[in-house]
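Posting here for the record, re: protoporphyrin IX containing FE.
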Amino acid sequence: APSSAPEEVGRHRSLAERVWVTYGREVFDITDFVELHPGGKSKVLLAAGGALEPFWAMYAVHSQAHVLEILQAYKVGEL
Ligand code: HEM
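Prediction output follows.
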């Protein structure tokens, strides 16, 4: 049976599988951003395969328009 979109996101949790995250209902393939993240590779990979919101709630540095602009460049779909 076809799996749901959230399950598909969850299959992309490493650089080898590609790294997908969600923000709201939008889905992003951030594989090419991992090495560019100002907060480091290990931090951004914590959100791999799931939602950004719980992490961004802890790191308010992301509550800026320029951060969302970066994210939009990696959009691949919607839930
Ligand atoms: C900083 C983007 C995910 C932790 C930043 C900055 C950007 C950014 C642009 C610099 C902001 C500024 O100084 O104006 C992103 C994007 C993410 C992401 C696009 C997802 C695709 C995460 C996650 C975490 C995280 C999941 C934590 C688990 C941090 C921390 C900093 C930071 C700690 C501050 C680094 C410093 O100034 O020393 N991020 N981030 N980020 N990010 Fe992220």
